[in-house]
Amino acid sequence: MDASAVEAERRERDSFMKEHYASPIPEEHLEAFAGLAYFTHDATWRLSAEWTPGAGEKISIPSTAGTDSAYTRAGTARCAIEGDDYTLVVLDDGDGGAFIPFRDGTSGSGTYGGGRYVPIEVGEDEAFIDFNRAYNPWCVYDEEFTCPLPPASNWITVRIPAGEKMYDAPA
Questions:
Q1: What is the CA radius of gyration of the chain?
Q2: Cα dihedral sign, 151-153-154-159
Q3: How far apart are CA 98 and CA 87, in angstroms?
Q4: 62-76 burial string, b = 16+ CB within 10 Å, else e?
Q5: 35-70: per-residue pLDDT in tens?
Q6: I want to staple 49 with a disulfide (CB 3.0 to 4.6 A). Which of 56, 79, 121, 161 is the partner?
Q7: How many helices (H) and strands (E) in the chain?
Q8: CA–CA gap between residue 154 and residue 83 (Å, rounded)
Q9: Is the pTM of this model over 0.90?
Q10: Contact between 92 and 137 (Cβ < 8 Å)
Q11: Which sign does the torsion angle of CA 12, 37, 147, 152 carry?
Q12: Phi/psi at 45 (5° precision)
């Protein structure tokens, strides 16, 4: 996605968070909610990846509740991030898409410590990961939600200053 498309997606997300009945923002915070914080778009964080589809197998993924849940592994995305190779586990989002739960060098320092999610655009044998589209799981906004945590293979050692920053609830 180019910068204008990412900005439009961010405006849509902010609008959803503020106005939609299914928003994870607690009702008592909605009046003061002025939008989410994002890193400035940086085209270098849109990466090409080698795509290997999964066979629909279920894998156990830890959650913020301290339990494991079964998720369908959509496949793997192999890519280089600042010179290091990663084979990232891609999960089926249940709505016809796929996402990568990941941690990086910003986790706990500018972004949610448990990690963020990024959608993946999948082609025949290539995929694109645009970290500018990274977003927080709903458990960041309200602890009532249980969210999957990134598997160890999806822990990226470098800082990825792209996408959504840590949510700061209005006072």
A1: 16
A2: positive
A3: 15
A4: ebbeeeeeebbbbbb
A5: 999 999 999 999 999 999 999 899 999 999 999 999
A6: 79
A7: 2, 7
A8: 16
A9: yes
A10: no
A11: positive
A12: -95, 10
